[in-house]
Write a structure and sequence with these properties.
With 184 residues, this protein is of the alpha+beta class. Helix content is 31%, strand content 29%. It is built from 3 helices and 9 strands, in the order βααββββββββα. Strand 6 and strand 7 form a beta hairpin. The two termini are 14 Å apart.
Length: 184
């Protein structure tokens, strides 16, 4: 019997770039505060709170989350700000996507206009392309629908093997039966 839930880490290039931005912003705030006489304490406190929230939400939270593969669902996560639960039965195909036919793979949660693809990437290696049977809307991309999700994992062969094992263990569902919903 397969493990109930497997966790797969994703790339950390996004975290490194956001940490760099945070360091630059913090440096600029420090320079402005030091070089401005009688800088308001309340303003410093507000700027400090905003920078702390930025580092907690956009730098630390992606380090604390992983993608999960359960017996019947794939749960894609990126920090505390993105979570998509996709039934394995709703996945048409899962393939390796080295280049994904694109010149540049964006980091983070990105849904380019005019393309049916949603990027959920923390790095640019170990990319997988997941094609959905039916397009689905994601609130994180302003309600735009996507029929393909590109995401990365650090152990792509392990993820694909676990996915195929779980896909093969799903029993067929009768679409006209009294209980057609898949449940864990």
């Amino acid at each position: 019997m397969a493990t109930k839930r497997l966790a797969f880490a994703y790339g950390r290039a996004l975290v490194v770039s956001r940490l760099f931005v945070w360091l630059v912003l913090t440096g600029l705030v420090v320079i402005v505060v030091v070089n401005t006489p009688d800088f308001p304490v309340l303003t410093v406190a507000i700027l400090g709170a905003v920078l702390a929230a930025y580092v907690a939400l956009l730098v630390l939270s992606p380090l604390l989350t992983q993608h999960w593969l359960t017996r019947s669902r794939l749960i894609l996560r990126q920090g505390w700000y993105f979570r998509a639960v996709i039934r394995i039965a709703d996945i048409e195909a899962l393939t390796a996507a080295e280049d994904a036919g694109r010149l540049r793979i964006p980091l983070g949660i990105h849904r380019p206009l005019g393309q049916p693809s949603l990027f959920v990437t923390g790095g640019r290696t170990g990319l997988l392309s997941l094609r959905l049977r039916n397009p689905r809307k994601f609130w994180q991309s302003f309600g735009l629908s996507a029929s393909e999700i590109l995401f990365d994992v650090t152990d792509r062969p392990g993820f694909v093997a676990a996915f195929e094992e779980r896909r093969g263990s799903l029993s067929p569902v009768e679409t006209d039966g009294p209980d057609t919903e898949l449940r864990d």
